[in-house]
Design a protein that fits this description.
Layout lengths: L16 H7 L4 H11 L6 H8 L3 H19 L2 E5 L1 E4 L28 H13 L4 E4 L11 H12 L4 E4 L2 H11 L3 H11 L1 E3 L10 H7 L6 H13 L4 E7 L5 H18 L2 E8 L6 H4 L12 H15 L10 H12 L6 E4 L6 H4 L10 H10 L3 E5 L5 E4 L17 H5 L2 H4 L10 H11 L15 H4 L11
The structure holds iron/sulfur cluster (SF4).
Length: about 475
């Protein structure tokens, strides 16, 4: 499945002579790996490991080669998308050690947005110029199996041209388990209901032993691969991600990127790769010491290396490497533009997940801020659609403000925020069993989260020994 990329191409310029001369001054292993990359070869895991160890001149050369490959493949255009996150519930039956966003259904801060509110938020985003809503959430107990499909249908009915980027592999798996259907059937249902692409989140690091330590009961590597490759087979593109800076080794990262490259070679369904720094501040596995030896996120050099090595390893197959301003902030994201990055993600409007984990970079990045960051780096800003078709390229002179640029400092008052939502009684989560009891007492249906007929019970959700059921 071809992935659109309309960025300016400039593939014929040879490596600058200075760069070739620089390689001659490096340690032989690093020089060989970088020279292979410049000659267009796919780097092996072993070569990537040499680059992960780079310091000094080798580190500088790594960054320069990543930048050169970026320039040859996608040119100087740097993209962003105008979108809104809608994390419609924070209630989750899982306990991933890195997740500060989720709440148990018994906790006071659990919320659940009804579909009407999800659609209202999507409509508001559209009115502010968004072309995409990113819909992801926790896994609420006894969820209606087809809830995600209902959400897609409702958004599409109101906004036929809005791109729905929604439902991580973990959610797709949960929806299929709750609906008692296969992953393929569930994905087809989502596609028919209007989903445009899937976030390639819930990947963290695709190493089962490591996953079992940081998030026992999380979707397995095998299941993640099944959801992603089936989505690609059905013509649903996905992003790809890695979460780093916790327990993983460089080898984990190199193998993870190589695995994604293998998938991309077979399916062509990844739109981009997004390295995500682990935010430790509120993460339970760090705060509560649930897992030994967890690091407090990556160092600055590690952040640069992961982006640069991703560019070098994926360049022949995945042209788009994204820096996450949510994780890295505006300043680091700008620096990453010199290390192989050609995309800065989305405006988000309601960033919740990293904010809950203690990230300090806000919940909205305005289009004018993106343009400024990109221009200051000597590059060309462009707004894209979700799948990287360019919507508009901005010239130097173009300073027209978008609706989102005109929003003042009262962002929370206009769009709400995670902090407000968890305190608000209006959308307080109530367990479907409680609602059902109330409904029965009143002789009416519950408005939220009633299980499907024949849907899995809580007991089934919490049965980790059932291979079909990952909700341990
Ligand atoms: S990462 Fe997702 S599945 Fe895990 S606890 Fe958080 S919301 Fe739940």
């Amino acid at each position: 499945m071809p992935v659109a990329n309309n960025a300016q191409l400039n593939t014929n310029r040879p490596a600058p002579r200075d760069l070739e001369a620089l390689l001659g001054c490096l340690q032989p292993d690093a020089a060989r790996a970088l020279s292979n990359a410049l000659e267009g070869r796919d780097l092996s895991v072993e070569e990537a490991l040499v680059l992960f160890d780079a310091t000094g001149l080798e580190y500088s050369a790594l960054v320069m080669v990543a930048d050169e490959l970026r320039r040859r493949t996608v040119g100087d255009v740097v993209t962003f998308v105008v979108n809104r996150n809608i994390n419609f519930t924070n209630v989750c039956i899982k306990r991933c050690g890195f997740c500060a966003f989720s709440r148990d259904y018994r906790e006071e801060e659990g919320y659940f947005l009804p579909i009407t509110e999800v659609v209202r938020r999507a409509q508001e985003a559209w009115d502010y110029g968004a072309t995409e809503v990113c819909v992801q959430a926790g896994l609420p107990p006894q969820m209606e199996g087809d809830l995600y499909i209902q959400v897609c249908r409702a958004i599409k009915e109101a906004l036929p041209d809005m791109h729905i980027h929604g439902f991580s592999p973990e959610e797709v798996l949960y929806g299929s388990v709750r609906s008692r259907c296969t992953i393929r059937e569930y994905l087809q249902g989502l596609k028919d209901a209007g989903v445009g692409s899937l976030p390639g989140t819930s990947a963290e690091v695709l190493d089962q032993e490591l996953r079992d330590r940081i998030a026992p009961g999380r979707i397995s590597v095998e299941q993640w691969l099944e959801v992603i490759t089936t989505a690609h087979e059905l013509g649903i593109p996905t992003t790809s991600t890695v979460m780093f800076g916790h327990l993983e080794t460089n080898e984990h990262l190199a193998r993870h990127i190589a695995l994604l490259r293998d998938i991309q070679q077979r399916t062509g369904g990844f739109t981009e790769f997004v390295p995500l720094s682990f935010v430790h501040t509120e993460a339970p596995m760090f705060m509560k010491g649930l897992v030994d030896n967890v690091r407090p996120g990556p160092t600055g050099m590690e952040v640069v290396k992961v982006h640069a090595i991703a560019r070098i390893m994926l360049n022949n197959w995945m042209p788009n490497i994204q820096a996450s301003w949510v994780k890295e902030g505006a300043r680091m994201s700008q620096l990453l533009l010199t290390a192989g990055v050609n995309d800065l993600g989305g405006t988000l409007i309601n960033e919740s997940i990293s904010t809950a984990a203690g990230a300090q970079h806000g919940q909205l990045m305005r289009p004018s801020q993106f343009r400024q960051i990109i221009r200051q780096a000597g590059r060309i800003p462009a707004e894209r659609h979700t799948t990287y078709a360019i919507k508009r390229v901005f010239s130097d002179a173009d300073e027209a403000l978008d609706p989102l640029d005109l929003v003042g400092d009262n962002v929370e008052e206009i769009f709400g925020s995670y902090q407000r939502l968890v305190k608000l009684d209006t959308y307080r989560f109530a367990h479907p069993r409680r609602l059902a009891r109330k409904g029965a007492a009143r002789g009416s249906d519950s408005p939220q989260g009633l299980p499907n007929e024949g849907g899995a019970s809580d007991a089934e959700e919490h049965n980790p020994s059932d291979p079909e059921d990952d909700q341990g």
